[in-house]
Amino acid sequence: MLYLYSIFKPNILKQFHMKFKNLVFASLSSLLLFSCVSSKKFKASQAKYDELSAAHTKLQGDLKGCEDEKADQARKVTSLQNDIDGLNKQIAFLKENNTQALRQLQDLSVISSSQAESIKKSLENIGAKDAYIQDLQTAMARKDSLNMALVMNLKGAIGNLDDKDINIKVDKGVIYIDISDKLLFKSGSYTVTEKAKEVLGKVAQVLKNQPDIEFMVEGHTDNVPYKSNAILLDNWDLSVKRATSVVRILQKQYGLDPAKMAAAGRSEYKPIEDNSTVDGKAANRRTSIVILPQLDQFFKLLETKR
């Protein structure tokens, strides 16, 4: 017996040891497998939670936007309702006025044939006046165009002369040719210089090509008192004598019609610059050829349209 036990004991112990190892391994495997499955479920649940949390945040934002839009729509509805109320009031007011007007018309008698004819003539007169105004505007536009053409001809004829010595401009439909006294006369003199005669000749050539044009030559001085002598007493005399000197040259040397010219002296009383400066005084000492507007043409137009 003891012999048999001694023979089989190692085998029994070995088998027991093997079974124990298998039992422990199976237990550990089950434990590890359970741990792995729980970790995966946890991560999946966490991801789902994050997804739901993000969706919840987005829905809250959408809800806020809807509430804001709803409030905005409510304001618009209120504004539109106010507009509708205002329009309804206007409609009611107009209906009342129309009702009153109808009542007044019912109280009035029908206009007579003479009254109807008078209204017709008034309308015809309005149409005629509109046409007349249009004719005047056309004539004025034509006059402006002719003035601009004349200015261009004058500038082209004179050429590249210093702008400080001669200036051509249009002001309120009137053409002014301003020539400085530095170019025309010596100081205190009314005798036209030879250089100025050349310039006057070029101006005269352009004016001669416009036989219907009338113009006036104006003499101007600064405010420095003129030292009187046996011929000239003051700046009035000097400005007039300078104007007549220019007119005589235009008539006698360049053949312009004297019936189309006039001479005038403005003395110091129509300055274009401030006389308190040297440059201002120099600018004010000038002789102007003023091309007069042909008002008779407009008067003729007025007569024919009456």
Summed up:
The chain is α+β, with helices and mostly antiparallel strands. It contains 7 helices and 5 strands. The protein has 2 domains: 13-107; 145-304, 60s Ribosomal Protein L30, Chain: A.
Word description of this protein:
The protein is of the alpha+beta class and 306 residues long. The chain is built from 7 helices and 5 strands, in the order ααββααβαβαβα. Strands 1-2-5-3-4 form a 5-stranded mixed β-sheet. Helix 2 runs antiparallel to helix 4. The protein starts with a helix and ends with a helix.
Spatial gap, N to C terminus: 166 Å
CATH architecture of the largest domain: 2-Layer Sandwich
The string of secondary-structure elements, in order, is HHEEHHEHEHEH
- Count of strand segments: 5
Q: Can you give the mean pLDDT? A: 75
Oligomer: single chain
Instruction: Return the CATH topology of the largest domain.
Output: 60s Ribosomal Protein L30, Chain: A
| Highest-level CATH class of the largest domain | Alpha Beta
CATH homologous superfamily title of the largest domain: OmpA-like domain
Proportion of β residues? Answer: 5-15%
Q: Trace the largest sheet across and list its strands.
A: 1-2-5-3-4
Please identify the structural class as seen in this structure.
alpha+beta
Helix content percent band: 55-70%
Q: Categorize the overall geometry.
A: elongated
Low-confidence stretches: 1-9
**Number of domains as seen in the coordinates:** 2
How many whole angstroms does the radius of gyration measure?
55 Å
